[in-house]
Write a structure and sequence with these properties.
3-stranded antiparallel beta sheet; about 5% strand
Length: about 290
């Protein structure tokens, strides 16, 4: 508790309290409605539910990182970014374009941080900033464009794995025809987009907390994509396998949802293993650099 109080006294001078409070109140007044609508989407939209975890986590990480001890305000850049974000919020409100309106929240926050503390504070808070940005749901036009190829890919992988297990199937688009007249529909909800979004967010979080070098963080993030696609294909295979060999009821309802959660845990474990390997490689690289220094 003493360390926290000391840091607060060093980082926030008394003369800065009033301007910061005014900026915070103005920010809340201007962006209260976009924040409210964003919170509603987090609560009601399954595709945006990861925001319920990412947003509080971003706030906690920002608090844990704290403030820089030496401020180098970027007044001009911060004012320009803040003014542009306010204008973007106004125009997006007129056009009822939610994604752009929500991005203006991030822009305004960056503008305030730059204006008061400078780039060093932005770099110190890069992880919470990225996590909060990832909590903003993508526009429907983008999610629909991504979901359809993922549906077809999951259907193809599931059908191929079923054929390897000598299950006679016929694939038509995103519908897998099983013997006995059973049909396995790979819907948009089963496309793997949700697990892909969640894994990418976890990749950013794990990379930011465990890894040191930007290159290994980017590699881990890139590996999260094939992991999500592969696991979703395996999920489709398992669903078809259980429907064919056990019971058609296992392809719907509670069992289907439970199966999805279990497969996501497997994907998360794989991502954690990849992060551990990347961390070991970083340690080896750092040791060699130190040896040759």
């Amino acid at each position: 508790m003493t360390a926290i109080a000391t840091r607060a006294r060093v980082d926030v001078a008394p003369r800065d309290v009033a301007p910061l409070l005014i900026a915070a109140v103005a920010f809340l007044i201007l962006f209260a409605n976009p924040l409210r609508l964003l919170a509603i989407d987090w609560w009601t939209d399954p595709d945006a539910g990861h925001g319920l975890l990412l947003a509080p986590l971003a706030l906690w990480l920002a608090w844990r990182a704290g403030l820089v001890t030496e401020r180098r305000p970027q007044r001009v850049l911060g004012a320009v970014l803040l003014g542009g974000s306010v204008l973007l919020r106004y125009l997006a409100g007129l056009a009822a374009e939610m994604f752009t309106m929500r991005l203006s929240i991030v822009g305004a926050l960056l503008g305030i941080v730059l204006f008061v503390y400078g780039w060093r504070q932005v770099m110190k808070w890069w992880l919470p900033i990225v996590l909060f940005t990832l909590s903003i749901p993508l526009p429907a036009i983008i999610t629909n464009t991504i979901a359809l190829p993922l549906q077809f890919k999951a259907s193809q992988m599931g059908a191929s794995l079923l054929e390897l297990r000598h299950v006679p199937v016929r694939l038509t688009g995103n519908v897998i025809m099983l013997p006995g007249g059973h049909r396995l529909f790979v819907t948009e909800a089963c496309s793997g987009l949700r697990s892909l979004t969640a894994l990418l967010s976890l990749g950013v979080l794990i990379g930011g907390l465990w890894l040191k070098y930007p290159v290994t963080r980017v590699i881990l993030l890139a590996l999260a994509i094939p992991v999500a696609v592969l696991i979703n294909g395996v999920r489709v295979f398992l669903t078809g396998f259980l429907v064919f060999f056990v019971s058609p009821k296992l392809g719907e309802g509670f069992m289907h949802v439970t199966e999805g959660w279990l497969m996501f845990i497997v994907a998360f474990a794989i991502l954690g293993m990849l992060a551990w390997v990347a961390g070991r490689l970083e340690a080896i690289y750092a040791g060699r650099r130190a040896a040759h220094a």
